[in-house]
Amino acid sequence: MREPAVIRMLPDGRRLHLHDGPIDLIIEASGTPQTISTAYEAAARRFVSILDELCSELPLLRNQAQKNSERPRGAVAQRMFAAVEPYCERCFITPMAAVAGAVAETILDSMLGVAPLDRAYVNDGGDIAIHLNENQSYKIGMVERPERPSLFGSLEISAADPVRGIATSGRRGRSFSLGIADAVTVLADSAATADAAATVIANAVNLPDHPGITRVPAREISPDSDLGDLLVTRGVELLSDSEIAAALDSGVRVAETLRAQGLIHSSALCLQGHTRVVSPLLARTFIALSQRSLLHA
Amino acid sequence: MPDVFPPDTVRCDACPVLCYIKRGHAGACDRYANVEGQLVRVDPHILLDRAKSQGTPLVPFLEREGDWDGKIMKGQETFVTAIGAGTTYPDYKPAPFIVSSEVEGVDMVTVVTEGIFSYCGVKLKIDTDRHLGPERNLVRAQGEPVGHVTTAEYGSQMLSLGGVHHLTGGSKSEGRVTCETLLDLCNGKEVELTIDDGASVRVAAGKPPVVNGQQEERMRVGCGSATIGMFAKQWFGKVDDVVVVDDHITGVLSEHQAGKLLGVRETGIAIQGRRSTPGRYFQVAEPGTGWGGTNISDPLTILKPFKPKFAWPHLRLLMVSTTGEQFAYYELDETLRPVEKELPETLKESVGRIRENCEPALTTVLFMGGAGGSLRAGVTENPVKLTDSVKRKLTRVTCGGAPAYIWPGGGITFMVDVTRMPENAFGYVPTPALVAPIEFTLKKDDYAVLGGHVDYVRPLVDVLKEKERQRQLVSHAQNPWPLKPHAGSSES
Fold it and tell me: Which residues of A touch B2 (CB under 8 A)?
């Protein structure tokens, strides 16, 4: 039985909550009361058909993206494909790796198309599309273990920064990961780009063939997973500092490459309490993080 | 898609992702899970506890403390609704819950399922005298046709929305918007509708309608002419003439049939507008937010000068609107010009009575649907017997515990007041069609006779044990208790 989408204001009266099937968005816009309500209405209108659109070509979106792949038709699906395309010769990736970011971006665009907002964000389960007018900024807190929320870092993004998308991926999230990172946060031009990159970097934080890592074919857990028979991480035992460093090193190498290619601006990689940061932007802003890194040093 | 699954993999149809979920795991949303091979919603299933006193609102019921003691006493007062119960549609298999309980010494069975209604709609009664649009004109939501104007009832305008032709007979977007509009109205949300060559209205079940941006407060007591008829006797002798100002029909006591019968003296009063029959005037002014739904703020503007041939000095004149919200009392001076005076005590009561007879203006939303097809198969192996049993009033039909009116004639076509159902009781499927809760309650003996799925009947206490996914509400105080054995159910 199809459940109706949820469209409601959160009890704080400021944020809009949109929920449909696996999509769950928290939205906040700043501006005049009139522009905010116009923007929220546009977001809700765009939202109600988005899941059906995606599902109408779900099999295609769950297939490996390749240079010669059939291109999806839907607007959100095209954003997804465009976001993963740069990786399709490097590794296995499906457009689903960017679904959350692409949805967030699409909803944000629908709001900005009708209302001039000072600033706004659409948070799709940790993959966030942001909008900043001149002189505006957002402070962002980062959490590595969603089941034990505590900030491991915070950063401030201002209008002058090129960042408009933030995404986090890792084995603690709702999606499967091929790697062992607890969380990899990426800042990029857009949410879909950040989403795809976070997936790729988190997959790269890894120790292949390590006996303390439990891996299971994705299909055994979720029969219709886009990852098919690929081994996904289900458990990681306590690793030694050198093992952690080695796993993070391999993730950092990929992150550095993506940054050099202009795919991302910055990234923070977390594994068992150790964090590595790639990029000048993050190094400048991760105040809380640097203090904590000292404790681990 | 994988071709072969373990036998206890379930396919979730709660959203179009249609996840395959393995035993012990959840779907992509984390809200539906496969527990012991069954698809289970982590969201609550609504149970109703019988309201202990009148006027008890629907409120979340406190979680029960400790383990179930197995006593049936408490269970007697709990009704398992279909809200959140799920459905087995379109499979030809028993409904998700077939619950037995003993009530007043009678074994009752309630068959509980969420029904998928592709034939359904809502009937809207909008308490306003404003002209919303010509009969048969399209009613639109978000620009899509979702229904039409049917007629006017006394003090109200009637719209019919939805129905199979809008849901599945038009364009894809017409169907989607229709479904959304019905869903919102049924779940008590506000919906904006525009009528071709007519008004735009914002309506929500149980709330005052907003017509062209203006909220209706109270229904008028009647048109101006009817008001004269109702109050003529109370005015006779206390005042020489009365004008009831109304955008539809303004009434004048001295000319009106009711005044004539009482022998009210002619005053020669002359009113702007078009005279329909004696004492009844159309179009005394433009529609507006002033007196009686007109744009009048000073009622004297609709009067022409009094003539010496009929009128006399000190003539007493009451002007009042059809809601009693506006009134003014005048006496003519020596030159026959009206001079406003304080309303005499003897007239205050009648003005007050007009007000007190004006009921709050509301929007009423009745959901109407037909329970045909395989929904009945979830109840009995011989679906026509269910229809027959409902017709013979052996089976009571409720929607989320609210009483349903069953149309005479063929099929199980019913209507229910959505404000008597718990909040957010409706859902939808992308067909598009609405999902509404429906419960069939009947004596256990009768259930066996109509070929019910008696092997699937579970005692209420067993259902109550699954409390992790249940939410208990207090039943709507005005609803008859759905489990009460009915008078007509002694024979089958």
Answer: 219, 223-224
